[in-house]
Amino acid sequence: MDLQSFLITFREALEAILIVGIIMTYLKRIGETQWNKWVWVGVVLALAASYGVALVFQTVLTGFATMGSQNYLKIGIMLVSCVLLSHMVLFMGSQSRNLQGQVENKISAILTVGGVLNMILHSFLVVVREGVETVFFFAAITGGDIQKALQSWGALIGLIAAFTVGLLFFRSTKKIQLKTFFRITSVFLMMIAGGLLVQAVGIMQDIGLMGTIYRTPGGEVGEIYNITAFMPEHPLDETQHIRDTGEQPLVSGQIGIFFKAFLGYTQNPSVEEFVLYWAFYLVILLLQGMQKKRHEKLRPAIT
User: Do residues 265 and 282 touch, judged by C-beta distance below 8 A?
Assistant: First the structure.
């Protein structure tokens, strides 16, 4: 969970910091620094709004737990988060190529129209979008305990790393290749998205919301393999394995639970979990390939 929190916080905070930094840099370049204070007003309001959304999410999730319906909300959050993360992986890379130009054009339009409210609103929307997405993703990776993610070392270090990268970027773009950072984090975010998908499928099958093409003679969801002896997905599974067989698994359940949270690892996947997990990666890779080809076709026309 700490590593997931780090990656999500780093990615979301970095994007917000870069956009706000571009706004401030552009205002300084055109001699309109009197607008800076209104940019910061929007940023502060966005942070407050994001915190409010986190409190609402926490309250709603706790309420659903009391009513016995938390699993349905978890499934919805996991699936929506999977879609949002996939979208980020597919499109953020291409947007980062002309991010500065897009932001500067928007600010030019705002200054042309005029108005303090427009400047506050723009900086507010830039930051609040990242803040709300962070809250949503935290709800997905923690099963609803957003406060746990907010207080983790991963979230704190992710925020510090985002500020550091942003500072290096604006001090000298030669010191850091922004596209490389987005590419590396995209790989990890894709893994998190795949993990959320398979966990949602597992919960749906556990509560009978989703069927299976393979069942055991006893009517339970069948597994296509079982590698508990290699690495249990949870310390409780490790304890049960030792009790049943008298043998220690090759890899500790403490490591297994990390891979389950990060990659959606399961020791005994159903057919649907196994197929959908790898189909997800295949679809993402195909879409990335199509995106790359489309960009290469457009490049000669642009140049």
Answer: no
pLDDT one-digit tens code per residue, 3-21: 777 877 887 787 778 777 7
Rounded distance, CA 281 to CA 231, Å? 23
Given a cut of 80, is residue 85 above it in pLDDT?
no
> Is the distance from CB of 142 to CB of 70 less than 8 angstroms?
no
Task: Please tell me the distance from the alpha carbon of residue 140 to that of residue 196, in angstroms, as a whole number.
Answer: 7
Q: Report d(CA 143, CA 149) in Å as an integer.
A: 10
Amino acid found at 28: K
pLDDT value at residue 282? 94
Vertex 118 angle, CA 8 and 106, to 5°: 65
Using alpha carbons, list the distances in angstroms from residue 112 to 9, 27, 106, 108, 109. Answer: 34, 13, 10, 6, 5
pTM of the model: 0.66
